[in-house]
Target: TOG domain-containing protein
Amino acid sequence: MDFKLIVLSEEDRRWFMEAMQSQTVDVIKRMKEITLVMQTPEQVLESQGVTPQDIEDMLDELQEHVESIDMANDLHSIGGLAPLLGYLKNSHANIRAKAAEVVTTIVQNNPQSQQLVMEANGLEPLLSNFASDPDVTVRTKALGAISSLIRHNKPGIEAFRLANGYAALRDALGSESVKFQRKALNLIQYLLNENASDCSVVDKLGFPRIMLHLASSEDPDVREAALRGLLELAREKADGSAIKLAEDNEKLKQLLGERIKGISLMSPEDLGAAREERHLVDSLWNACYNEPSSLRDKGLLVLPGEDAPPPDVASKHFEPPLRAWAANPASKKSSVEQKETPLLLGPGPSSEATSNQDTSMSEADANGQTNASQ
Model:
């Protein structure tokens, strides 16, 4: 089969290159426009009719742009990072919450932006919002940003510890918001997994008692997160140390007994969904009492059709999440779609051809071998 080589004219080539470059150019231009708005004093924006909702929409757009690691890192170079961090202190709770979301996206799995935010003193307003903001949504979003900022970031973890971050986490566990509780519990276990010596710190701050309470939560995610935290405390560390949860604490045995009873009464469908909780309960019982739980005798630890080795109930919660654009870029809106600034201001050969080409090559090889033998 004949193949035709298509040669682009110079005009077509120029158009193609411009189309390929236009996305980056347009995004950078748009981010500069957004930066200009963020740098404008709030009273000036209000005088020109810019509403808090306009600012939220603008931050939504910015968050979409900085999902690209390159764009996230470029935000600092165009002067946008500092005013974004300033929005963490905005008088409107929704803007404070949205700014924290954008920060989360910027630093997520991005060591360079983590360092830039740390150098810009971005952890301080996040900690303030997390610990004392009157709006629980703002506190929750700030905690999410902190979790992404200090993950796999030793200077960030140390700064969090020195800023009395564990005390703020303890307060978060007492919140009535299950989402806030879940985020706090997940960060606690990550920190304990990274720094075994911190187990004694959380023990002195009374975390085990609070986790015991949350381990009987009606929310299954909170319940599992609390059990993971207790298991992390109970596990023997490299130096042989461990928090003795079972000493003089019948409440733990009572709690685990109640969870075993609850699991025993579950329907087959619910049992399948509670696989992680089943293994957590058994592992915690074994860690505290040096014997397997009764879930094993009842045949409820490994159900028919399940693999015998227990799942890794901890590490999957602490893998750096992939950015949304990498997971499913087609689902994102085009980053070059223009939005009005609230202020001032673009196939291979067929399978048959491939088959014919392969056949021709094979025949040529065969002829070559025949000629060589002659």
Notes: The chain is about 65% helix and 0% strand. The chain has a mean pLDDT of 84.
